[in-house]
Write a structure and sequence with these properties.
By secondary structure, the chain is an all-alpha fold. It has a single domain, classed as MFS general substrate transporter like domains (Growth Hormone, Chain: A), CATH 1.20.1250.20. It is 82% helix and 0% strand. Helix 1 packs across helix 6, helix 3 runs antiparallel to helix 13 and helix 6 crosses helix 12.
């Protein structure tokens, strides 16, 4: 593939992978640690997940601004170094066995993580052509799926073999590798600083607020973009539920004695499903409109999530999870390839900076509701699956009604813009690009 001849993309690709691995493996091991040591208080595991999502509320208004105004390469690299340092603090904090202190460190580390992906995503957009966006999204999704298959399993295995401290060491090594990969990239200034070099004297609360407001206005005025981002908010409910519900399902219903093993099999099933779905999506992406790769899979996913709550058989549960992964693969590729096409490079950081907070807000809301409802009010997890299935169904119907029409409007606008540029080029042959 031509995209692999771009060394910067390859390095950023693996840097993102190791960065995500540094977060996920430790997080999974810590969830197992809490369920083992505080099995009578399942809300602890849910609160731990909240520590990964709540920081978004504190930093969301500056995340995108930082990615657009500062050197994107330095932002991404420094995020890794800071998280590596905080991971050392977490390693020491575990010896104190102080849950509030441990939660505080997890909270801070998650807050720094929020700055990484908008900067990294913006760098990728700056080094690829529009024709490569969907391909890059497919490759990213496929590699992430492979990591998901083995990463969560490794997290559970490390916890079983060397305990929570071993998992934290893996986190640290992953962050260091990611930082070194980003440092080795040779990315042009136009991609690192698309808005020009910023002087420290130009930085103020007022300017940050103005940049933040510009991002909101840009999203609102672009109906297709705002519709896609609304979908991300709804998907946050799905992410929040699946961050903790599978472990609860195995721990309290399907396999209380071997829940770690089956929770790992859940991740493996979902990962292999994502891998298969990503492969299918990458092959057919050029033959379908992006919205066609989204609407039907989202609808099917809503039905499958409903049946997850209905089944009492572990094998059927894992098979359904695999099919859900197959459905999610094309959805992620469609969105990943579509977003860079409709967002101006100078505003990519601010737009990306809105996606994560919206998803994390919905995820935090879901986790908070689960912590309150289960098991005091809702005694079984089945009804929680039904609620998530209903939300996803609403998204599929909403997208089915809006996306085809909005995509047609966007393509017409792009066609007119292209014709205008061509007309200007013919009128002024010395002008090569507008």
């Amino acid at each position: 593939m031509k995209i692999f001849k771009n060394p910067n993309f390859v390095k950023l690709f693996y840097a993102a992978l190791f960065s995500q691995m540094g977060t996920t493996i430790g997080n999974m091991a810590f969830a197992f640690y809490l369920l083992d040591h505080f099995s009578h208080q399942p809300s602890y595991a849910t609160l731990a997940e909240l520590m990964y999502s709540l920081p978004t509320i504190l930093v969301f208004f500056i995340v995108g601004v930082v990615a657009d105004r500062f050197d994107r390469k330095k932002v991404a690299e420094n995020c890794d170094w800071i998280r590596a340092l905080l991971t050392i603090v977490l390693f020491a904090a575990l010896f104190t066995q102080s849950i509030p202190f441990i939660f505080l460190v997890l909270f801070l580390r998650s807050a720094v993580t929020k700055f990484f992906f908008p900067a990294e995503n913006s760098l990728v957009q700056g080094i690829l052509s529009k024709e490569q966006y969907a391909q890059a999204a497919g490759l990213n999704q496929m590699l992430f799926s492979i990591f998901m298959v083995f990463g969560v399993g490794i997290g559970a295995a490390i916890y079983k073999l060397v305990g929570i401290h071993g998992a934290v060491v893996v986190d640290f090594i992953s962050f260091v590798i990611s930082a070194l990969l980003i440092r080795s990239c040779h990315i042009p200034t136009s991609a690192r600083l698309p808005n020009g070099k910023l002087n420290w004297k130009d930085i103020s609360i007022k300017s940050s607020f103005t940049d933040f407001k510009d991002g909101i206005i840009y999203i609102i005025r672009n109906r297709l973009l705002s519709t896609l981002i609304f979908g991300f908010f709804i998907f946050g409910f799905f992410n929040g539920a699946f961050a903790i519900l599978p472990m609860f399902t195995m721990k309290y219903e399907l396999s209380p004695t071997n829940y770690e093993w089956y929770a790992s099999l859940f991740a493996i099933s979902l990962g292999f499903g994502l891998l298969a779905g990503s492969g299918i999506g990458t092959l057919v992406a050029s033959k379908f409109k992006p919205y066609q790769l989204m609407i039907l899979p989202i609808f099917v996913t809503s039905l499958l999530v409903f049946f997850l709550g209905y089944t009492n058989n572990v094998s059927i549960f894992l098979a359904l999870v695999f099919i859900i992964g197959v459905c999610l693969g094309p959805i992620n590729i469609a969105i990943g390839g579509w977003m860079p096409k409709i967002v101006h490079p100078k505003l990519m950081g601010r737009v990306s900076g809105w996606i994560d907070p919206l998803m994390m807000f919905a995820q935090s809301l879901t986790l908070g509701l689960i912590a309150v409802l289960f098991p005091k009010i809702v005694e079984t997890v089945d009804y929680l699956y039904y609620g998530i299935a209903f939300i996803i169904l609403i998204v599929s119907l909403f997208y089915g009604y809006t996306l085809p029409k909005l995509n047609k409007e966007f393509e017409e606008k792009e066609r007119k813009s292209s014709m205008k540029k061509e007309s200007i080029r013919k009128t002024n042959p010395n002008i090569h690009s507008i």
